[in-house]
Amino acid sequence: xxxxxxxxxxxxxxxxxxxxxxxxxxxxxxxxxxxxxxxxxxxxxxxxxxxxxxxxxxxxxxxxxxxxxxxxxxxxxxxxxxxxxxxxxxxxxxxxxxxxxxxxxxxxxxxxxxxxxxxxxxxxxxxxxxxxxxxxxxxxxxxxxxxxxxxxxxxxxxxxxxxxxxxxxxxxxxxxxxxxxxxxxxxxxxxxxxxxxxxxxxxxxxxxxxxxxxxxxxxxx
Length: 221
Fold this sequence. Notes:
By secondary structure, this protein is mainly α. Helix content is about 60%, strand content about 0%.
């Protein structure tokens, strides 16, 4: 399998990198994790409020669509990470794009200001999804998209925690172990951050070599 650019990147334990000459663009490329979490929390709550007050959807249908939206995000998260963030590199342009959107995170995984998409990008994407899904789904969008956005907020929270804090001594430790394998042992496996479910479905959980390497310590270093 043709390797992605991130396979050649050596992770740094500390530091950051300037991506843009423009101080405005550089500032916009960074965010504190609380900013997107607050934005999506408010966005999701507002859409749900609209669904309850302006549509005829039953509470059961509203709950069901919210759940479907949440699960749909986990699928989008997996595929975006695998096929876009780890796109195959065969031109200099693709190499630059891949580094800009994800390679820099692999080089500086502990840079807390680059653990989420910039809020401006996130709001734009969320609004585009609202307009597109509104056409495709009608009123169902007002309960589906909140679930999708809460799924994204959950993903952001997990991603931040696994990079910013040591693993807990409970069942959640597996999320730290899995993402550690992706970053420090093999960037071509374990693409699911918030859940390993889709890695099991698509067969990208771990290779035998990764399991063997992780086994003695139960966590990657």
